[in-house]
């Protein structure tokens, strides 16, 4: 149960990443999203799904089947599918309730990134955007110049006043970089996925001036005899009430409480990171 | 008798007074008692949830306090192995390490050795076992069990006893009983901390004469409380309740009686009414992992069944736990087995169910309405089925009239 004053957004793409997705046309003329053999949805079902969830907003779908080595022919086809799916979603009698967050793709190709923005991003239904960046998540050394170029091409045709989101486990360094490129809204998957790896993070004291942070992995037995706070100056529930040694014990015994306490810490720190980023932005705004 | 139900249990109040047990209400054989321990005042009859590894299956200590849980059980064998008792001592003891300000009971570690070790022998020195983790042979004499338990620092420690399977017969039953008495004396000698108490464990298998003999010896040596051990190992229910009844009948009233390993709701109620005061079991959290909720009406609710898919009622509309106040059966059905929160939500409900059941027993004693409570409890628990014969026998033994 969510608190009364919180907003909820329907995101289908999280599941899609797990099972693979491509939008394929079928005889009815509607595009079909293949989630798995058992679960397939078309645009009518998506509309009814979004409406029955009664969330404040929802994301549209994007065909992200555009690997780096994709052929030009396929690139054009995939790009068209996203556009047509979007048209089918809105150009019908039945209204989709909630604010539409338009998912924008285009793979690694700058031209198709811009094309996607022009083709669907300018539609009047767009309350905001979410930029599909899954190919850049989790790589050790993402090519920042490439991401920068892609985002420039994506954002250039779009009105500046609409919210820009992205999803995926981006670390503090990437978040800072993406904010600098004009992104506004991120999800919490970094905090959770890090906890699932039995790890916690702490920002450097001068974040975001420097974008560095430290990672602590509690699988490491060197913490077993360390009964100090996980992070000395952190005010989260976990750091105020438990020790590194206890977290190591919980991780070692695979207890459920390990991930609960690590998620609490990581969420608190991820939140604090955005406070610091906003504070830094308002200072630079004043100057 | 004028009942006076205490609802507060401040730590400072408990720390300034010594450990003791007062019976504050009595109906038939059943007692409402108040056990003062260094970390909390425990109202009995009480159910103690089991946090084997020093955590309660993903439930935060604050959530347990919200449920008015006053005492937990932690397992010496597991904690002695990981993180190790020296580490727990270095962490400032179990209470501090796991952020639990209220009372804790630790077992002796002997029972797990019997159940988890492939190779296990017992001699006069103690229990010898092959560590399932390192493969080496290790010895656990009574002195070692106390050393470990003193490092853990629980409010209540259990003596090392010679555990034999409950269905064992012959001379070994009596030998094990006598050995348990000798081991109690060794435990008592090794026990040096004054802020922990040590419970003896009454043994004697299903032989009622041996049980009586053991009670006589053990009760002489008991200071704050005593346990009835060696049950819940697959014996017939008709033998089980008779052993509990026999022990409770001969135990002096000033000792709280802890029946080890008992946790089914009907067992808790019958044993409480026979005069037992403390219980522990992994049952509520273990069964939650399989999506089973404990309910007063009908006993069990298997939330993974398809009929709950579109059931937007709480697990139990009379239950005040966080899960029942917040979530529907359909939601839990949807997440059980997929998200850890499913098991967590059912664990919270099941622990609350046991704590509330014990609170209702205490209230029935306070209000002298035990007969009414027993009938309504059994009527709901076995609705659509028969009340088992052993329950009828036990109820008859206590002199209550059953109308269900």
From TrEMBL, chain A:
Domain annotation tRNA-guanine(15) transglycosylase-like: ranges: 62-281
State the source organism's domain of life.
Answer: Eukaryota
Q: Enumerate the InterPro entries for this protein.
A: Queuine_tRNA-ribosyltrfase (IPR050852), TGT-like_sf (IPR036511), tRNA_ribo_trans-like (IPR002616)
Protein name in the entry: tRNA-guanine(15) transglycosylase-like domain-containing protein
One annotated GO biological process = tRNA modification
Which PANTHER family does the UniProt record give? QUEUINE TRNA-RIBOSYLTRANSFERASE ACCESSORY SUBUNIT 2
UniProtKB/TrEMBL annotation, chain B:
Q: Record-annotated residues binding Zn(2+)?
A: 319, 321, 324, 349
Catalysis: reaction(s): guanosine(34) in tRNA + queuine = queuosine(34) in tRNA + guanine
- Write out the annotated subcellular location: Cytoplasm
Gene3D superfamilies registered for this protein in UniProt: Queuine tRNA-ribosyltransferase-like
Q: Which UniProt keywords apply?
A: Cytoplasm, Glycosyltransferase, Metal-binding, Transferase, tRNA processing, Zinc
A Pfam family for this UniProt protein?
TGT
Cite the GO molecular-function annotations of the record: metal ion binding; tRNA-guanosine(34) queuine transglycosylase activity
Show the segment(s) annotated as RNA binding. 261-267, 285-289
What cofactor is needed? Zn(2+)
Q: Which GO terms describe its cellular component?
A: cytosol
Q: Keyword Membrane, does the record have it?
A: no
Enzyme Commission number: 2.4.2.64
Residues holding substrate: 107-111, 161, 203, 230
Q: Which residues form the tRNA-guanine(15) transglycosylase-like domain?
A: 30-380
The reply on keyword Disulfide bond is no
Q: What class of enzyme is it?
A: transferase
Q: Name one GO biological process term.
A: tRNA modification
Instruction: Tell me the active site.
Output: 107, 280
Q: Which family does it belong to?
A: Belongs to the queuine tRNA-ribosyltransferase family.
| Record-linked PANTHER family | QUEUINE TRNA-RIBOSYLTRANSFERASE CATALYTIC SUBUNIT 1 (PTHR43530)
- Give the function comment from the record: Catalytic subunit of the queuine tRNA-ribosyltransferase (TGT) that catalyzes the base-exchange of a guanine (G) residue with queuine (Q) at position 34 (anticodon wobble position) in tRNAs with GU(N) anticodons (tRNA-Asp, -Asn, -His and -Tyr), resulting in the hypermodified nucleoside queuosine (7-(((4,5-cis-dihydroxy-2-cyclopenten-1-yl)amino)methyl)-7-deazaguanosine). Catalysis occurs through a double-displacement mechanism. The nucleophile active site attacks the C1' of nucleotide 34 to detach the guanine base from the RNA, forming a covalent enzyme-RNA intermediate.
| Subunit | Heterodimer of a catalytic subunit and an accessory subunit.
From the Swiss-Prot or TrEMBL record, give the protein name: Queuine tRNA-ribosyltransferase catalytic subunit 1
């Amino acid at each position: 149960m969510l608190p009364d004053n919180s907003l909820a957004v329907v995101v289908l793409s999280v599941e899609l990443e797990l099972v693979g997705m491509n939008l394929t046309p079928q005889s009815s003329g509607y595009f079909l999203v293949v989630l798995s053999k058992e679960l397939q949805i078309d645009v009518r079902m998506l509309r009814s799904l979004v409406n029955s969830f009664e969330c404040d907003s929802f994301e549209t779908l994007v065909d992200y089947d555009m690997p780096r080595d994709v052929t030009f022919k396929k690139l054009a086809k995939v790009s068209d599918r996203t556009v047509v799916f979007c048209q089918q979603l809105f150009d019908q009698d039945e209204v989709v309730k909630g604010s539409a967050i338009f998912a924008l793709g285009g793979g690694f190709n700058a031209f198709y990134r811009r094309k996607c923005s022009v083709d669907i991003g300018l539609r009047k239904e767009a309350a905001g955007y979410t930029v599909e960046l899954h190919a850049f998540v989790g790589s050790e050394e993402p090519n920042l110049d490439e991401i920068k170029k892609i985002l420039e091409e994506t954002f250039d045709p779009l009105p500046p006043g609409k919210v820009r989101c992205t999803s995926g486990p981006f670390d503090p360094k990437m978040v800072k970089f993406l904010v600098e490129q004009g992104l506004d809204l991120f999800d919490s998957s970094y905090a959770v996925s890090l906890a699932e790896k039995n790890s916690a993070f702490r920002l450097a004291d001068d974040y975001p001036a420097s974008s560095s942070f430290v990672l602590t992995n509690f699988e490491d037995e060197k913490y077993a005899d360390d009964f100090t706070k996980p992070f000395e100056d952190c005010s989260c529930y976990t750091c105020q009430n438990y020790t590194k040694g206890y977290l190591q014990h919980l991780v070692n015994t695979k207890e459920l409480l390990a991930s609960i306490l690590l998620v609490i810490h990581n969420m608190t720190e991820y939140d604090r990171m955005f406070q610091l980023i906003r504070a830094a932005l308002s200072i630079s705004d004043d100057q | 008798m004028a009942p006076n139900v205490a609802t507060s249990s401040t730590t400072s109040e408990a720390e300034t007074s010594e450990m003791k047990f007062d019976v504050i209400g009595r109906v038939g054989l059943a007692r409402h008692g108040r056990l003062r321990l260094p970390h909390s005042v425990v109202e009995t009859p009480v159910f103690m949830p089991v946090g084997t590894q020093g955590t309660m299956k993903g439930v935060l200590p604050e959530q347990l306090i919200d449920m008015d849980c006053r005492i937990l059980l932690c397992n010496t064998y597991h904690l002695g192995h990981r993180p190790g008792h020296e580490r727990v001592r270095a962490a400032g003891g179990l209470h501090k390490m796991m952020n639990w300000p209220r009372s804790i009971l630790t077992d002796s570690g002997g029972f797990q050795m019997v159940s988890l070790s492939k190779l296990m022998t017992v001699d006069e020195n103690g229990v010898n076992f092959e560590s399932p983790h390192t493969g080496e042979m290790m010895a656990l004499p009574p002195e070692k069990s106390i050393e470990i338990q003193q490092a853990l620092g629980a409010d209540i420690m259990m003596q090392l006893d010679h555990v034999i399977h409950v269905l064992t017969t012959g001379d070994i039953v009596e030998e094990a009983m006598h050995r348990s008495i000798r081991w109690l004396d060794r435990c008592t000698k090794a026990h040096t901390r004054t802020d922990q108490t040590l419970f003896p464990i009454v043994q004697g298998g299903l032989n009622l004469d041996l049980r009586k003999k053991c009670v006589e010896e053990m009760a002489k040596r008991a200071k704050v409380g005593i346990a009835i051990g060696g049950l819940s190992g697959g014996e017939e229910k008709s033998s089980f309740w008779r052993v509990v009844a026999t022990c409770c009948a001969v135990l002096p009233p000033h000792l709280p009686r802890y029946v080890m390993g008992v946790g089914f709701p009907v067992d808790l109620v019958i044993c409480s009414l026979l005069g037992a005061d403390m219980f522990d079991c992994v049952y509520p959290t273990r069964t939650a992992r399989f999506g089973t909720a404990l309910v007063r009406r009908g006993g069990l609710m298997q939330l993974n069944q398809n009929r709950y898919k579109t059931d937007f009622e709480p697990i139990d509309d009379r239950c005040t736990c966080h899960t029942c106040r917040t979530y529907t059966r359909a939601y839990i059905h949807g997440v059980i087995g997929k998200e850890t929160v499913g098991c967590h939500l059912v664990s919270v409900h099941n622990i609350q169910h046991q704590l509330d059941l014990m609170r209702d027993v205490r209230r029935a004693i306070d209000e002298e309405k035990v007969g009414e409570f027993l009938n309504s409890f059994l009527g709901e628990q076995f609705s659509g089925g028969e009340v088992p014969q052993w329950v009828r026998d036990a109820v008859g033994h206590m002199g209550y009239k059953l109308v269900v």
